[in-house]
Design goal:
Distance between the termini: 41 Å
Shape: globular
Strand order of the largest sheet: 3-2-1-4-5-6-7-8
Structural class: alpha/beta
Helix content: 40-55%
Radius of gyration: 19 Å
């Protein structure tokens, strides 16, 4: 049994991957409305897969039936493996793991899907930090094959091996990385976003032009502003801020004021209907 904490885009995506891999899943969220929305979105996703002939109707129904929902952490007590996909707040993740430890077995593994926070710090509040590991999926989780597996300072070797095996069983390409700020992908990705934002702030070009140049000239499937909208500007900005602070305010990782203002205004991308692009008007 796999527990997933957080029913947002990432959490529900991981739940889909796990259920399609044959695991029974408990999807947890503090808000029942969020869970209802997640199940509705998953149902729609499976229906589309059936329509496209990528999944049989009975397979879709069986996969969806493997996902149950919960609004109490107590319901996760029987899980052997729990993946946390809560917001990128250190104190929140530490509190969740500390509370879960008192409910689950001594052998159960706690994995965090953090993209930039220190796994060692997250584990520091646990009585069994050796059972804590990083398991970082990429958005959208059902489509992107990579999973970064991060060992904290005291993560047991057997826990790392079990996490790598689980990722592979889910059909993912699992890569073990060190517990450094941003790990590999998010550290490398910072210049991709930040340089584009600086070009925008300097008035070199507008966001749509920059995206087009990156797609057409660089061969990327999406430009940096399109990708920020997909991920969520709040999540992307939090990742930039985390890496900047973790590297002792290294200037090359300095976040963008323009992006901060977007987050403050509530223009977070696709999930709010408007970010760099207006999705309510189907602008592209």
């Amino acid at each position: 049994m796999i527990g997933i904490i957080g029913s947002g885009t990432m959490g529900s995506g991981i739940a889909q991957v796990a259920a399609q891999s044959g695991f029974d899943v408990i999807l947890y969220d503090v808000e029942s409305a969020m869970l209802a929305r997640a199940i509705s979105n998953l149902t729609s996703t499976f229906n589309k897969l059936v329509e496209k002939g990528k999944l049989k109707q009975e397979e879709a129904e069986a996969t969806l039936a493997r996902i149950t929902t919960a609004t109490s952490l107590n319901d996760l007590a029987g899980c052997d493996f729990i993946i946390e996909a809560a917001p990128e707040k250190l104190d929140l993740k530490q509190s969740l793991f500390s509370n879960l430890e008192s409910l689950i077995s001594d052998q159960a593994i706690l994995a965090t899907n953090t993209s930039t926070l220190s796994v060692t710090q997250i584990a520091s509040g646990c009585k069994r930090p050796q059972n804590v590991v990083g398991m970082h999926f990429f958005n959208p989780a059902p489509l992107l094959p990579l999973v970064e597996v991060i060992a904290a300072a005291v993560t047991a070797d057997a826990v790392v091996t079990a996490t790598l095996d689980l990722a592979k069983h889910m059909g993912k390409t699992a890569v073990q990385v060190k517990d450094v700020p941003g790990f590999i992908v998010n550290r490398v990705a910072r210049p991709f976003y930040l340089e584009a934002l600086r070009l925008l702030e300097e008035g070199v070009a507008d966001h749509a032009t920059l995206d087009k140049l990156i797609r057409d000239g660089g061969g990327f499937r999406m430009g940096p502003f399109e990708l920020m909208d997909l991920i969520g500007l709040d999540i992307n900005y939090a990742a930039s801020l985390s890496v900047y602070e973790s590297y002792f305010y290294e200037p090359r990782y300095r976040p963008s004021l323009a992006q901060q203002r977007m987050v403050e205004s509530g223009r977070l991308g696709r999930k709010t209907g408007r970010g760099w692009y207006d999705y309510n008007k189907n602008e592209q």
